[in-house]
Write a structure and sequence with these properties.
Layout (H helix, E strand, L loop, with lengths): L1 E6 L25 H8 L4 E7 L5 H12 L4 E6 L8 H9 L4 E4 L18 H9 L3 E4 L6 H10 L5 E3 L13 H12 L4 E5 L2 H5 L9 H11 L4 E3 L12 H12 L4 H15 L3
Parallel strand pairs: 1-2, 2-3, 3-4, 4-5, 5-6, 6-7, 7-8
Helix pairs in contact: 3-4, 5-6, 6-8
Length: 275
């Protein structure tokens, strides 16, 4: 069983599309289930979690419609304006869609680094908890103290850190702050993490072994029971390929026990997202 905990579909010019921009030639085109099946089949992909890529209700509605008839998609992480006055009603409506499993505010794009820790989000977070939805945290190192504040205040909210909080692999800047932030979050049992997006963060100038200390830190901090592999495809195509990243993640994880590998590459994702 191989489950991809993080992948995307989009249609250029539709459903609130604003990214990727035309300069990103490798991924500035439509991506859908047939494309995922093509890259996933050679490695034995059995299912995935489809994650929003646009901060727009239309994107989330389209993803849920698409996923409803797509057996390869096991769950959907959508987007909602969590500070909107009608956020609880919108969340309740989304939660009635069978494959919705969580919501993801695009924190890395917001001007306020502390946005996620604001009490103004409590009505939306209350609704998420009431409907059994988790929070995907798209964050950078600078957001980690604020995400920690939220997680400590809301132990009832299941949280997963996307892309290992995008560690500074290419520059090494604030690496110690990233480590401290990751370690602090990992102390909280309701916080999980995704081993995804690291090739893109490394950039083309970095050798693949530059990822090794960051992968080891995530494995040590969260363990395979709270760490899940994701491809971040098709964004992955900017830095590598599907099978190559899967093989590299297995190698860099340092895990050899079959139970640990089964957790990292499927079991933890299935348990966290209830699929």
């Amino acid at each position: 069983m191989l489950i991809d905990a993080h992948q995307h579909f989009w249609r250029v010019g539709r459903n609130g599309f604003s990214w990727p921009t035309p300069d990103l030639l490798a991924i500035h085109r439509d991506f859908g289930p047939a494309d995922l099946a093509e890259v996933g089949a050679p490695v034995g992909l059995t299912g995935s979690v489809l994650v929003q890529s646009q901060a727009d209700d239309r994107d989330t509605d389209w993803l849920l419609d698409l996923a409803a008839d797509e057996p390869l998609v096991l769950g959907v992480v959508g987007w909602a304006d969590l500070k909107a006055p009608d956020a609880p009603d919108r969340i309740a409506a989304l939660a009635r869609r069978p494959k919705l499993r969580g919501l993801r505010p695009m924190l890395q794009d917001l001007d306020d680094d502390a946005w996620i820790a604001s009490p103004d989000l409590d009505p939306a977070l209350d609704a998420m908890v009431a409907h059994g939805l988790s929070l995907d945290a798209l964050v950078l190192t600078r957001h980690l103290p604020h995400l920690l504040d939220l997680a400590r205040r809301r132990p009832d909210l299941a949280i997963v850190v996307d892309h290992g909080a995008k560690p500074p692999i290419a520059t090494g800047e604030d690496a110690e702050a990233w480590e401290r932030g990751i370690d602090a979050l990992a102390e909280l049992p309701q916080v999980f993490c995704k081993l995804s997006g690291l090739l893109t963060e490394a950039g083309p100038a970095q050798p693949t072994d530059a990822l090794a200390p960051y992968v080891r830190r995530l494995v040590t901090a969260f363990g395979p029971e709270r760490l899940m592999w994701g491809s971040d495809w098709p964004v992955l195509d900017l830095a590598g390929d599907y099978g190559g990243w899967l093989a590299l993640a297995k190698a860099l994880s340092g895990l050899t026990d079959p139970a640990d590998l089964a957790a990292l590459f499927g079991g933890t994702c299935r348990r966290f997202y209830r699929i």
